[in-house]
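Minutes, project check-in
Item: structure for the 180-residue chain
Input as provided by the requester:
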Amino acid sequence: MKRSLRTQAIDYAAHMRRRWYVYLPVFAIWAFAYTRLFIDPTPRVPVLFNWTGSLPYRVAWLQHGEHPLQRGEFVIFSFAGEARATYPGLDGQPFFKVVRGLPGDVVTVSGRTVSVNGVVVGTAKAQAFDRRPLEPIAPTVIPPGHYYVQGTGPDSFDSRYRSSGLVRAEQVLGTVVPLF
């Protein structure tokens, strides 16, 4: 005998009330993820999790506060590159990268090979994961208050690309200490 949709919904609601301790953590995790992705992506706790292959570290400790960044330091910043027009979900998302260039450094591009102060830092890919073309960063002298940042993985979306660009000092949320 078929039960009505209303009866099934009432039975399921009763089941959820009896097993609230199972559903509450699931809903809390989903609410946190939704808030983090669509409302406020700024990290609020000092423990960070890196789910991408842009750096070899999966867990890191965030140190808030401003100080002059050094080459080789790990930073987390709020994304504000040109790619926001094409990929609106990137706006304000936290990116975890390594500082490779400081104000006054010279960025040069030969073909798709990018160098900072004459040291090759990486090669820009021709296209993104969705096959849209990617242009390498334009040759420049890094202006005051800006940084060239990069991941260690070849697929990292970073300052090698014009649509990501240099990072302004005010975008930097803090430095990061990789744990593992």
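Outcome recorded: Helices lie at 5-18, 20-39.
No further action items on this chain.
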